[in-house]
Design goal:
alpha+beta; globular; 5-stranded mixed beta sheet; 25% helix; 6 helices
Length: 208
């Protein structure tokens, strides 16, 4: 059984979502404030995060920024409760729970992210026939965020090739920031397979 964090101001919303998760084989860690999210993720191993829309809108800019920096390490979605059901923006509730149950639960205390700019070819297939030339924004032991103004789909697999040393990596898109939001850099957060991407930075001669 996995655990999903549910962030919602109203107790009745948290209780309803918790019951919906439990009916599908997941426990719920319930938070009333977005400001509590980072510490909760440090203290607990979780499989996913659900953020209620109204709670997100009314949160402080500081809490919004802090949450954005950690949620991309996990399957996540924004939601609202309507018509006696949990409605997600990115996918079906059932699909989200399935993604969470496939995801290995982890805390964030070891998932330190560092700002690194590395040139990279980004592609939806391993042939790199129509690859996008872009750069990383930041790196972490298990993933990275790559700048891209294109449209992407959470859950899709992508491939990356680093031209300086021709290292090729693959991973799953966990977050997508669409172009046009002036508060967020457009691009995708990727959970990587295999070699930690910080090792790629060292292979490129970047030891800072």
């Amino acid at each position: 059984m996995g655990t999903c964090v549910v962030v919602a101001r109203k107790e009745e919303v948290r209780t309803f979502v918790a019951a919906s998760l439990q009916s599908m084989g997941m426990d719920a860690l319930l938070l009333a404030s977005l400001g509590d999210l980072t510490q909760a993720l440090k203290d607990n191993s979780v499989n996913g995060i659900l953020l209620e829309l109204t709670t997100m809108v009314t949160a402080s800019p500081h809490d919004k920024q802090a949450s954005q920096e950690v949620i991309e390490f996990f399957p996540n979605s924004k939601f609202k409760v309507a018509d006696n059901a949990v409605r997600l923006l990115s996918q079906s509730f059932e699909g989200f729970v399935a993604d969470c149950l496939r995801f290995k639960a982890r805390p964030i205390r070891r998932l330190v992210r560092k700002e690194r700019v590395l040139a990279v070819y980004l592609s939806t297939d391993p042939s790199f026939e129509h690859a996008e030339k872009t750069v990383t924004v930041n790196l972490a032991p298990i993933g990275c965020f790559i700048y891209s103004p294109k449209n992407w789909k959470i859950g899709d697999r992508v491939w990356m090739r680093f031209p300086e040393n021709e290292i090729v990596m693959s991973g799953i898109i966990r977050t997508w920031h669409a172009w046009g939001n002036n508060r967020l850099i457009p691009g995708i957060g990727i959970e990587l397979d295999g070699m930690p991407l910080l090792d790629v930075a060292e292979a490129n001669g970047d030891s800072a």
